[in-house]
Amino acid sequence: MIYNDALWDEIEPWMIEIRRTIHRHPELGLETPKTAQLIEGVLDDLGIEHTRPIANGVKAVMGAHLGGEALLLRADMDALPILENNDLPFKSEIEGRMHACGHDCHTAMLLGAARYLKAHESALTRPVVLMFQPAEEGPGGAVPMIEAGVLENPKVKEAAMVHVSSELPQGVIGLREGPAMGACDDFSLSFLGRGGHGSSPHVGIDAIYVAAAAVQATQALVSREQDPFDPLVISFGTIHGGFRENVIADRVDLTGTIRSMTPATRARAVKRFREVMESVAATYGATVELTMEPGYPPLVADIPWSHRVKDILESEIGAERIQQIDPTLGVEDFAFVAERVPGLCLNVGIVGDHFTTGLHSAGLIVDERGLRSGAAGFAALALRS
Ligand SMILES: [Zn+2]
Ligand SMILES: [Zn+2]
Fold first, then answer.
1. Annotated active-site positions, please?
2. How far, in Å, is the centroid of ligand 2 from the Cα of 257?
3. pLDDT tens digits, one per residue of 344-364
4. ∠ CA 295-292-209, rounded to 5°
5. What domains are defined for the chain?
């Protein structure tokens, strides 16, 4: 069983040290030059060839000479604009930035797998592509890397990513086949009415009343039009408008997000949302300006590939560490990879004794013992799939 290989006893502390170094120096979005350099330095030390398909994204290939179609393993590199609220020796050294989504762990796990695979290079039966991408938290690094050819030379046949999970105990790997993560469409809209004196609303067009009606009407799209077995969420995140207590507001601005799980529901929800916003505005004599910003598509894990992955992980990581998990409406830009080749996510548990809060929070504390499962899981897929 790969998980029990004594080599992990050497790789594990080395991998944790890499994770801590990245954790101390978080970088945002597409601007991840130091993280890319660190990755390249480690790959150089291991003697693994690498290139930069995009400015701060790294692609490495192992076993290229074997020919045939490749397995792609993906880690993301970017942090979040969060002020870390932890007292750790390796806490973020950049104020207002933190690896609160665990991408430091993902990069470390992929490098851990790379070191293990280097030691077992003769056992590889096909090429393995290691993809280190920036900007998962936005604006997206997967699409530029795909456009730069990360799925070609060697041609990628299947793919897998890791993400830490703050819902699973450390070391457990959660799998979800089929629709696994959501699609995202963010919107901003403004209702435009006509201002006036608060004592005479009939003379104006009250944009606050229109906005309130629109917020109410939106939830009917979820509760009355949507199949309850096909998830849809519409959330307003901000609402701003008005001047003072006795003035009819001439304008209200709102923003929010639409989350769905299937392409059909996604298209329908975006269309119906626009129709309802326009008709509510028209009902009350106002106008609406609506901008939709399409985000990531749903992450749909290929079912035959998921079954193969589950079998491999159960025998190489241990069936007691593999769990089926529920889908989530969180989003993931690896979905663009999984639209093109069979793909799935290994959700690696990081909940341990000191766990406090979940991902994207300033107090996230990762139980680093979980990293071994993710790295060994990646290595198992490379050697057994
Ligand atoms: Zn995140
Ligand atoms: Zn993330």
1. 296, 368
2. 18
3. 999 999 999 888 889 999 999
4. 130
5. 2-180+297-384 (3.40.630.10), 183-294 (3.30.70.360)
